[in-house]
Amino acid sequence: MILGAYETVKTARSGQRPTGADYVRNTISGFFELHGDRRFRDDPAILGGVGYLKDLPVTVIAIDKGHTAKERIARNFGAPNPEGYRKALRLMKQAEKFHRPVLCYVDTSGAYCGIGAEERGQGQAIAENLMEMMALKTPVISVLIGEGGSGGALALGVADRVWMMENAVYSVISPEGCASILWKDASRAPQAAEQLQLTASCCLKNGIVESVVPEDGLGSPDFYGRLTDALYDEFVSLRTLSATELTHRRYERFRAMGRRRD
Amino acid sequence: MAFLNFLFQPKNELETGGRSAAPAAAPDDPLKTCPNCHMDTPVSILRENSYTCTCGYHFRIRARTRIGLITDPDSFTELFTETASDDPISFPGYSEKLSSARSRSQESEAVVCGTATIGGHRCCLFVMEPNFMMGSMGTAVGERITKLFEYALENALPVIGFTVSGGARMQEGLFSLMQMAKTSGAVRRHSDAGLLYVALLTNPTTGGVTASFAMEADIILAEPGATVGFAGARVIEQTTLRPLPKGFQTSEFLLQHGFADAIVARPEQKNVLISLLGMHEGSDAK
Ligand SMILES: [Zn+2]
Fold first, then answer.
1. Mutual orientation of helices A175-183 and A189-196 as an angle, nearest 10°?
2. Which residues pair with B205 in a beta bridge?
């Protein structure tokens, strides 16, 4: 069924969908959580650690929104602070050291907009992740599982492959934000959602993502099994590339986006 | 230093004495009123002071004006002028917005790039243009900045960049967001070759530009009193339901929290850049 773009936004935001922690639990065996950024504190919005994708040791990083009201508050509704992005970067650098692939599950309305977040350099934290991920000498796959909210999502999305759930969205700005800034009318969010081309099929067409993951049986063992197999095969093929070739292709992947001729 | 502390000075000092003492406007030398201290100053005097008021207020200036203040006379050669935005997601009203931005700013896009010498030191330079959709970053801005870093890498040149931006240009959708990753990759390659990048943050630098190349420089300088941050102040207030602290997201706030190396007033910027460029001469990996 084809949903209108704004319907898809609402689906992507739904508390009924599997969260980042659900994906980790169901695709990674022997997961061991690693906490903290070694700078300030542990950010509960981002879950990180090591485990096996089938027989392949991986570093996995997931933004988790939580299901219950209590969980959602504890997870800050999946809105990371700078220390969350710094934890993610620490774990990615660790993965690079041990030649482990990195798997990111992304689901956020955006990086947290708070006083402390600004004091601790939200912009700098995201910028550093973009720059470091661009040069990371180990394969990275990012899967957008729900909301891909702007820079806060991109900070875990500079990957060799970016995949998107069928009903996930990825956008430079929320449709509500876009409508209120451009048209001074947040109620025109559905129109903004259509215009922003934020659905998985648009992202695929625009070359922003490589693959759209069907949501048949979303959250079922079959669903996770298919996803695990697909991720495993992709990592196996990415691991045949040298670090130089890998980072070169990653650079070219983003370099091609919005390329203009002189 | 008056320039560094103007934000915290009582405003009446210049306001009371300044106004009556202000010279009458000459027909070819109009007066400009400072929004900070309300004093009127002839444009000729402002020009001599790099478009800063005696109270320390920094007037907003065009990219071309800034290039004139910073580079050696006739040394600037512009690059990538043909790299312009189209309308990649056919956003309603965007084409019209682009045309009016072009005529208002007299620029083809929100950043001017090129090579120049500064105190005799050859470098690549990018200067963002506030009058072009408030320096928002779309594909053309991302592409020009990426090309500039690639050019600088090829020619082993340092990059000096002046930022002013409201953030990503939403009318280009995800293509504008992806420019954050693209420019970051180019900065990284340039950096890996041992080349210098100095960013100078001016008012305002926010959103996707702060969260990419503005914060990726080896040395981050800021103009006094500039607003620099990731999220918009109003959004933060709405999210946290708390009043924002005084001086929140200013250059001074950035310095205090460790995200800028120094605050440099406009009249001193050229000399500071000359000295930094000199110190890094021949530092590249070649
Ligand atoms: Zn003044």
1. 110
2. B165, B228
Domains along chain A with CATH numbers: 5-253 (3.90.226.10)
Rounded (10°) angle between helices A221-238 and A20-27: 80
pLDDT at B204: 97
Count of other CB atoms within 10 angstroms of residue B128: 27
d(CA A3, CA A11): 9
Higher-scoring residue by pLDDT: A186, A237: A237
* Chain-chain contact of B174 with A151 (C-beta, under 8 angstroms): no
- Which residues are near ligand 1, the ion (C-beta closer than 5 Å)? B 34, 36-37, 53, 55, 57
Identify which of B85, B178, B192 has the shortest CB distance to residue A208.
B178
Strand partners, B128: B111
What's the pLDDT at A258? 83
User: What local confidence, expressed as pLDDT, does residue B86 receive?
Assistant: 87
ipTM (interface pTM): 0.97
Closest residue of chain B to A153, computed from CA coordinates: B177
The Cα–Cα gap between B124 and A126 comes to 25
Residues of chain B with pLDDT under 50: 1-21
Chain A interface test: which of B182, B209, B241, B253 (most A C-beta within 10 Å) = B182
B60-280 CATH fold: 2-enoyl-CoA Hydratase; Chain A, domain 1 (3.90.226)
Mark yes or no for CB contact B207/A251 under 8 Å.
no
Which residues in chain B have Cβ-Cβ distances shorter than 8 Å to A255? Answer: 146, 182, 185
A230, with CB counted inside 10 A (0-12, 13-18, 19+), is middle
The DSSP annotation for B176-233 comes to HHHHHHHHHHHHHHHHHTT--EEEEEEEEE-HHHHTTGGG--SEEEE-TT-BB-SS-H
Q: What is the distance in angstroms between the Cα of A184 and the nearest Cα belonging to chain B? A: 15
Which sequence spans correspond to the domains of chain B? 60-280
User: pTM (2 decimals)?
Assistant: 0.94
Selected residue of A124, A144, A206 to mutate for chain B interface (largest B Cβ count, 10 A): A124
The pLDDT tens digits of the residues spanning B8-32 come to 443 333 333 334 445 566 778 899 9
Q: Look at residue A51 in the predicted model and tell me its pLDDT.
A: 98
* Higher per-residue pLDDT: B85 or A202: A202
